Each structure stands twice: as C-alpha cells, then as structure tokens.
Amino acid sequence: SQKIEQNSEALNIQEGKTATLTCNYTNYSPAYLQWYRQDPGRGPVFLLLIRENEKEKRKERLKVTFDTTLKQSLFHITASQPADSATYLCAPQNTGRRALTFGSGTRLQVQP
Amino acid sequence: DTEVTQTPKHLVMGMTNKKSLKCEQHMGHRAMYWYKQKAKKPPELMFVYSYEKLSINESVPSRFSPECPNSSLLNLHLHALQPEDSALYLCASSQWDKNTGELFFGEGSRLTVL
To answer: Fewer Cβ atoms within 10 Å of its own Cβ: the N or the C terminal residue of chain B?
Structure first.
C-alpha cells in the first residue's frame, strides 16, 4: 500500500539555523511533490511544487530537493525565524491525480 | 480573489440533527474537495468534484452527503453524525485542467458532535 512518512516528532531548532524536514514515500511514482504549511486551526497553505525531473527548487528562504531514486524529498528553511513555526505537510502526486494525499506532517518549532 | 470561504467556522450539533457546511470560491477552479482533519493528523480526502460532478468518494459513510450546486459552491450535508465525526472539515479548490494545480484551502469548519 502507499505510504508517506514524515518525521512524526517535532523538530526544535534555534532561530537563524537551517531546518531540514524529510518526506519519504513508498509505492508512489510521483511526477510531482508538493509542500504545504499549516498553522494550528487553519487550512494548509501551498509553499512549493517540485517536478520529478527537477533536482532542486528554491523560493526565497525555502529549498526543496526531490530524489526519485531514494523516494525522498527534503525541505529546507534557511535562516529560520520563530514565524516559521508550523506543521509542514508533503504530498507526492502521481500523474493525473489531482487530489492530494498528505504525509503525517512535521511540526517545526523555531526558538528565539 | 484567491480565497476559499467556509461557513460556519464552528458548528455544534447533536447526533439527530441535520446541518450543512458551505464552501465558496471565485477563482474559476473546476475542482473542489472536502477533507477531514482530526487533531494531530493530516487532512484526509473525503470527496472530489470536477466540473460539478462527483469524481472521487473515499468510502465516506452516507451520513456525509456532498453537493456541488454550481462551479463556485460546495456543500457538505450532515445527518445522524457520531461523536467520532468531530473534526475540522476543510474545503479546497484547484484547477482541474492543470496536472500540477496547487490546492487552495479554506480555514475550515470546526465540527463538534455531541
């Protein structure tokens, strides 16, 4: 069966450091992988999409990598700030599948 | 306008009540979704509508009844719910004719079933 695994434990880092979050998947052949941010009690917000033929994608302080051999995506936030504290969800997306299935999410806590 | 609006924000209902959750978007998206989210869990897909037709039902119990009256509106009719149905119900929309369409989520309706 298909599985999406993200660090289930919260990630605590110091302000200014780089946060690295992991998304591993099995029994997917995703053409794309999307990352979302969710704050408590609110709906997820889209951050980045990376395609299978892209190794890396950047947006401001965010960087995503996608390794289809390892079946893994890494999500980096550089120069982290307390405002980056949230839960981050990944969603591998097979071709033709519009609806997303999300990983369990990783809660990031950035300490000032 | 890049908003998905959900009403009500909070709803408390008894197990014998009938209520509805509403969702509206004006981005011209032809795909709309209902997700259910329990505490400390990710959103779980319930239903997908494309061009106002139900295209995916993820084996959701019949006490949840979706409806898409037009391309901007999505309803979720609730009847005879159980306390375990208490959750945050999220509506989302996306472009259907674009493989990589990102999902735009509303802020959710927090449902409590007594």
So the answer is: N
